[in-house]
Amino acid sequence: MNFTIVVPEGSTNHGNPKLLCTPPAWYDYVLFYFANYFAHAATVISYPGQGGFETVAVAVSALMLPVSGFTRAANAIYRRARFESNPLKRAARARALCMVVKSLESLPESQQGERLLSDDHPSFLKLLSSLLTMSHRSKHWWSPEVIKKVPLDYNIHGPYSLEHKQGYILAFVPSDAPLEFESPEYTRQLKQAKGFAESYNAPKLLMSLIQAIWAIIVKNCGSDCCQPKRIPGDQIDQYGYAAFGLTVAPYAWMSVLNILGNILTPDYPAVFMLRTPLMDEVEERKLGKFEGELRVKIDYSRSYEPDPDWVDFEGSVVVLSTFVFGLIPLAIIGGLSGFRSQNSTPLQRGFTMSWLAVGFIIGLVQGGLMNDPNEIGDSDLRFGIIPTTIVLLGVPAIGGMVVVGQMIHDFGIYCAMRHWSRQVGELVSALRGRPDYSAPQHQQLHHESNAGPVQAGKGADVGSN
């Protein structure tokens, strides 16, 4: 059945009689950016007890450099904490346990063991070099060379005080530490307590799922409103691999990975301290005081046999997995567009591709820093380094988002997306107490004729059987 509508100035069907794209209103831009970029970045996995600064920094980093968000998902997928039956080891895999250790700097140089690189090199180079360089691991799982310091702004369960300048720090318990509760009775009491209760981050899991489904719908919604493997309208025909719909690919893939990571990792309200002989030593020397710690039995006799072919396996796997995960969006873009430039401008291709390329390369490094923020120094140093890095390296992302906005302005908003964004605009207008005059008003007029191109401001046939 053919029908005729009156459309606002600037509307077009891009030569497709089954398509209608109208000029975007303000809420179209808001919905597109929020649904396709900001909401995806908010799904990045958080660690137990994570500080507010780190939470914001991780989300902003994932927004500017989406590959950086892959690192935490890769780490969670690799650790698979949910499959650990021992509740203590499960918490350790989720980075929810810490203990007092001697800082590496407080030990004699002869006891510090071999290093991958000297202290003069950035720590992310040490991490990346583990893919190519073999090194001995310290014999003991509890060595300061093996475990990682808890950032000072993390939320620790129970009040405590510790003189960090005296050579003692709180560090995360390694995921493979040999742990068990002090007694069966203590285990039963702890299970009944609410403090150590684990849960799953349902809001983030739900948001990740919604974002992944939304991205699939947007990318699969074609000129027939559901034509597989097509970006709405002729975006790819018009812009090629620079099409603004394709810039969503890294963010959508990040949400999928975060779904897996959140399913495999339980959530804890804070980081829990373990009572150890070294903690007793600190209290005896009046260098600290601790309350609310968990009483466990730890096997300090367990050691690793030196192996010249040993590699920092976990760090290497996470980096390598992040690298492979980062190639998936590139494969999606190439598969849908064939890497054809079509009618896109050099500016459009330059910003969208630099957004993807810089996000891929720098995202690996930034993701490592976000995954273990203490690697680059104390909290005060992180407050300076991380924001500066995000701002400087986020320029391609900002430029890419500006170019995306220009393409949306020139291309128009696809009819299916218009339905959702207009509902948002009408809701906001209702809350403000006045009608939304920016929304285009369409008047349908039935007309029996063959479909033809849309003409703004006039009755035009846009549908057919």
UniProtKB/TrEMBL annotation:
Transmembrane segments: 239-264, 317-339, 351-369, 381-404
Entry superkingdom: Eukaryota
Keywords: Membrane, Transmembrane, Transmembrane helix
Region (Disordered): 438-465
Protein's UniProt name: Uncharacterized protein
